[in-house]
Amino acid sequence: MPRDFKKRGRRDDQKKRKREQHEDHGAAGKRHKKHSDKALDHHHADDEAAPPQDEAAAAAAYHDHEALDGVTRPEAMPFYGMLDEDEQEYFKRADELLELNQFADPEERALFLENVYKEADGKELKIAHSQGCSRLMERLILLSTPAQLKGLFQKFSGSFLHLVQHRFASHCCEALFIQAAPVVTQELQKPELTQTPPSSDPNEVVVSMENLFLYALAELEGYLGYLMTDRFASHVLRVLLVVLAGEPLEKQAPKSVLKSKRKEQISVTGARDGHERALERRAVPDSFIDALGKLINGSVDGLDSTYLRALAMHPTGNPTLQLLLQLELTQFGKSRARDESSITRRLLPDDPIAEGTESAKFINGLVYDSIGSRLLETIVQYAPGKTFKAIFAQFFKERMGSLARNEIAAYVAGKILERLSREELDEAMRQIVEQIPGLVERNRTAILKTLIERCAVRGVDTSPIKAQLETAYGGSNGFEVTRILKLGEAPSDDGSSDGKHAHAHAQPDKVHGSLLAQAMMSVPGPLGNLIFDSLARLGTHLSLKIARDPTASRTLQAALTSPHASVIFRRKVIQQFYGHVGELALDPSGSHVIDAVWQGTHGLAFIRERIAEELAENEASLRESFVGRAVWRNWQMDLYKRRRAEWVKKSRYTAGNEGFQSFPESSNNDIGPNNHKSGRHLTAIELARQRHAAAKAAQAKKDTKKEKQVTQASSDKGKGKSSVMA
């Protein structure tokens, strides 16, 4: 059936509509519009063979380019050319080989990398802009030596402003900055690395990685306000900020601030992850700190408070603003907040911050905004003490209960709880406790976890929390841990859990419930006993169900290894697994529970041996399973099978050591009979063991003394005989 004729380009319709509405606009406006359209055209031309975007994404991109005013825009993005078919085929094949990493030795891989670099010489910018080959550039960066990284830096030099704005090239820049960051520290600690070796090419120009970073930063100066809201450049800008500050990268940093959730993870099979090199805090030269200060000032220079506050609500600009604010207060001291040109002062200019001021309106607007509340969390977390106390007293002191009720504001309330004194926390706890029934009903328990943890740190009585939670999660048998863990469907008939299916249903509500239960067990006394008592009376069926659940099993593991769990509780729970140890050891989630049983059998030698017997009976199936082999190794079952007496000796009490030996991997734990926490009473069996050990030691001491006396008497008698004969 024939379809209606429609134009392909939506931009043409928009141009026509705007021409009809703005025919009287001057030539300057037309030139500006033509310039923007040309930039968009170049942007799409560079996305070689890029798939068409859907309407929502295209509309968002159009909005990003059209809605920014008051900032300096870069020139139109140049076109660097395209790779021909043979080049694309070669580089894609090289990418596949690097990803598989099936080289005979590191030397062979290094030789292959050199050949790829030779083939890519002069084509680096084309590769970085190519949809199909930009992944190769990222993998090359992950495997490159410091010298190769410097060479790539120099190839990109002069084009960084355009590279960071490109859909694919921006990821290459991000990887380059992350991999080059540790090299700066190495050269700082060993200055001889930056000197030209005698055997090197006399025409080669040796430059330090520090200067290469500074050159790249100089290219971006003047356009920082624009790059903060660019959907590709903003991520690179955040990474560059963290590198200059010497802060931890990737895993230890907030992923929502540094990295897009949709970013593809480029890696090399079997090779050490390149990002691991940049995890720890690094020493950076003074020039980096100076450049960071200029970058922070330059990013907001010329922007008024109105624009900055609008940036706080911008989905792309907000994370960058968070990081700028955090680094300003942590790297340059909290006294920086008093500076008139600081970001903190620009956002909150009023002193004092009172109701009705612009600062008050700004704060109230952030609290319930899904994007702006994240900036408010940063302000609460890093603001100077005087500023925080003023904000808390003015806006939040009497509203903690209502904040905890709201799905968005609850996260701000959690950050506030972390900075309250004991008296302030006690008052906030009274307000939040009243909201517990509603919070449980709406499954908003993250704030309760934070509240319990802070009460434990500050020494605030948790009895009101215990009473409310006992009622909220109560059932026919009192407090029911199955309600807080929100168990789903029962496991399959064969006793196994489908890992993929289980992870797909690992809902946030279940995760928050499990974290709340673990937080409750971290507090000694009645609050933790709610979880312990409920787990002890579950029965075999429900205990196995929890053990096989990927989320709920974390609670069971924490219960078995908790320093506040009594011997009676651990014995009751572990005995419920009798006859099912083998199948649990083969389950992805249950295997971790069996690992926790090793530590949970502290003081229960006979139960530990019983569990080991069941594992030995299932040796064949355990050795065929990946998780089963891990359990077999952690329980040292090879030693059990070959030298059982030695295994038993390690598992039982020995003279002078009344604690079990832990796994070799976790031998630094401090759980033992002599390590009781304050406030915990010994059980009857523990007291009996202590009396028996003391009596045995006293008897041994008495026997030793008696033997010495007999030996001394014999010696004296022998001396007497000798004197008579003489």
TrEMBL record:
UniProt-annotated location(s): Nucleus, Nucleolus
Compositional bias annotation for Low complexity: 50-60
Organism ancestry: Eukaryota, Fungi, Dikarya, Ascomycota, Pezizomycotina
Entry keyword annotation includes Endoplasmic reticulum: no
Annotated stretches, region: Disordered: 1-60, 254-274, 490-509, 658-726
Protein name stated in the entry: Nucleolar protein 9
GO cellular component terms given for this protein: 90S preribosome; nucleolus; preribosome, small subunit precursor
Role: RNA-binding nucleolar protein required for pre-rRNA processing. Involved in production of 18S rRNA and assembly of small ribosomal subunit.
Principal location class: nucleus
Keyword terms: Repeat
Biased composition (Polar residues): 659-676
InterPro entries associated with the record: ARM-like, ARM-type_fold, NOP9, Pumilio_RNA-bd_rpt
Organism the protein comes from: Corynespora cassiicola Philippines
Pfam families referenced in this protein's UniProt entry, alphabetically: PUF_NOP9
Molecular function terms from GO: RNA binding
GO biological process: endonucleolytic cleavage in 5'-ETS of tricistronic rRNA transcript (SSU-rRNA, 5.8S rRNA, LSU-rRNA); endonucleolytic cleavage in ITS1 to separate SSU-rRNA from 5.8S rRNA and LSU-rRNA from tricistronic rRNA transcript (SSU-rRNA, 5.8S rRNA, LSU-rRNA); endonucleolytic cleavage to generate mature 5'-end of SSU-rRNA from (SSU-rRNA, 5.8S rRNA, LSU-rRNA); ribosomal small subunit export from nucleus
Positions with biased composition (Basic and acidic residues): 1-27, 37-47, 497-509, 700-709
Recorded superkingdom: Eukaryota
